[in-house]
């Protein structure tokens, strides 16, 4: 019976790795949105398709200037390919907000060790800080929406 579990687990892990692979290219470390979009067309396409409703745009405009969003993600990860372009579209509305994009390898690490320092276990993880203090995280997918979850952290 244990052999079947081991085979099943191995097959699941292999499927997961294959499903998240992206042409063998994996960005690691700090990256900007221009580099991301030029090197990873899936992210660019999802960014072009992302839309914010008028109420969401108004909420984002009301966020405080001292808000920062640090995005830990994998170019190899389908959750990142779905959520990161949406976050970049949101942040494009407020270029005055501080943000950082950190691409992680399949082990969810980066050369500077920032992901380990932040305790990142899943991608994407959006760490939201205000005045340098963490006020919340969105891990893998938002509960309501990216805008809604951040606004809830801010109690807007």
From TrEMBL:
Coiled coil: none annotated. The keyword Signal applies. Pfam families: Thioredoxin_9. Keywords: Signal. Residues 1-21 form the signal peptide. InterPro entries: Thioredoxin-like_sf. This is Thioredoxin family protein. It comes from Thalassomonas viridans.
